[in-house]
Amino acid sequence: MINQLIQSLKSSKNFGNKFKSNDTHYVFLTSGGYRKYDKGRIVVIVFDGSEPRLVVKFYKNSDSISNEYETQTQIYKIYENLITKPLGIERINDYDILVEEPALGKNLTRYVYENLNKYALLDVFKLVFAFNKNLNSKLEVSNIQNLTKEVDQLFQTFYSNIKISNSHEDMIKNLRLIFLKNFENKKIFQRFSNNDFILNNFIINKNKITLTDFEFSTKTHLYFLEWFKFFRYQWVVSNDYIHDLTVSEIADPFYNLGLREFSNYKINEKFELACRLIFEIFDFINRFSISSSSTHKTLIVDMNKFLSELNSRFDKPNVVQKESNLDSSEKEFFNDEYQKLIKYKKSIDELLDLRKSNDEYNLRLKNTFEYLDKSERGFKDQKFLTENLRKRNDGLHDEVVKLREHNDELRNEIKRLELDHENFKKSMQASHENFKKSIQASHENYKRSVESSLPWKFARILDKLLGKNS
């Protein structure tokens, strides 16, 4: 399917001129398994030779991606080179395909991993802060009514997806009021946000960063909560260390508020708790909208756990923030990283031992297969001999069968001859008896004929006269 998609793009009048050769290939990315199928998202980076030419995005079930394209286009018109440039929408095989210009460079998460030193880290976070400041340079004036409307819409959606206990509901109502009260009699602004302001969605190239991924982008009054998102999903560097490293360099209140909430520097000031609540609800709704039913259960469990923790903080008096100690947090962070490296090295050593063991096993396996191969050849030779013997035996068996059949024919012939002989014998005996009876009858007839003849009678009379007995 992807190859067909690329061929369609190459033949497209809008994007065909992006390709300079026939050496096209791609990198295929897809969203995590936590998503429900109709929100499964596929991203394809298309290369022409070694150069990335296009980034293609679409949903697995052919859902329209046009809304994202329209919003990203509006954002690009305002901020231009701060974000990836959307190039257009293509309809290919019943799919709406969002095509954008690739941002050249390195993923910012990877860059941080590769530059874990104090000065590089400070430069990165100052760079991100400057980027956010550029976003805030194009704010639109709004009012408290619109802010309240957006917040209330969040709560309405939130309550439709989760059942809240009475104690939690009371806390939520109080924090809502505290949040909105903080903005009374203040200038209210709004701007576009991608609502996914995290390290992993930045590309860095020559000290310039570009923001990507606008799936959740909207115009919002809550843009300042982007820092909560940033530090909530920042796992590369300890937030305690980031706090101590940047606290004297970056004075933005919402930057520091978001950073405190996800470090050991959090306090129980009510407005900060209110901001944390609004952010968590906002994040919950976005994640809930794309997640599978099984992930929904996890999100609800996690949210109830968070509300319990927040309720506990809400009931406690404000705590004194601990003092910043860069040397201590830096030492702790790099010691943790060192321990991770030790574990990693141990894992590598275990992997090497396993590979060595596996090589030895493979050698034994190879020898076994060679033995089996040799045995198989001997078996095949034996099989050939056995097959020939079987064929010969089958031939002999056929001859024996024929001999048996011939023997049966001879036996049947002998039986037939014996039967014929017996019948002949009986016939001869019957003929002999008949002949004997015929001779006897002829003799009797002859005797009677003689005795009734005149000479015989005369002789008998003569014998009587002479006194002779017959």
Major sheet, described briefly? 5 strands, antiparallel
Beta-strand content bin: 5-15%
Distance between the termini: 139 Å
Q: Strand arrangement, largest sheet?
A: 1-2-3-5-4
Can you tell me the residue ranges where pLDDT is under 50 for at least 5 consecutive residues? Answer: none
Question: Mean of the pLDDT scores?
Answer: 89
Number of strands: 11
Could you say what the CATH topology of the domain at 106-322 is called? Answer: Aminoglycoside 3'-phosphotransferase, Chain: A, domain 2
CATH architecture of the domain at 106-322: Alpha-Beta Complex
Count every helix, treating DSSP H or I runs of 4 or more residues as helices. Answer: 13
Structure explained in plain terms:
The chain is α+β, with helices and mostly antiparallel strands. Among the domains are: 2-100, Phosphorylase Kinase, domain 1 (2-Layer Sandwich), CATH 3.30.200; 106-322, Aminoglycoside 3'-phosphotransferase, Chain: A, domain 2 (Alpha-Beta Complex). The protein is 61% helix and 13% strand. The chain contains 13 helices and 11 strands. The protein has helices at residues 2-10, 66-79, 108-114, 118-135, 144-161, 166-181, 226-232, 239-246, 253-261, 270-290, 293-315, 326-451, 454-466, and strands at 24-30, 41-48, 51-59, 86-92, 95-100, 106-107, 140-142, 188-193, 202-205, 208-211, 218-220. A 5-stranded antiparallel beta sheet has the order 1-2-3-5-4, sandwiched between helices. Strands 6-9-10 form a 3-stranded antiparallel beta sheet. A hairpin with a 2-residue loop joins strand 9 (202-205) and strand 10. Helix 10 packs antiparallel against helix 11. The longest helix has 126 residues, at 326-451.
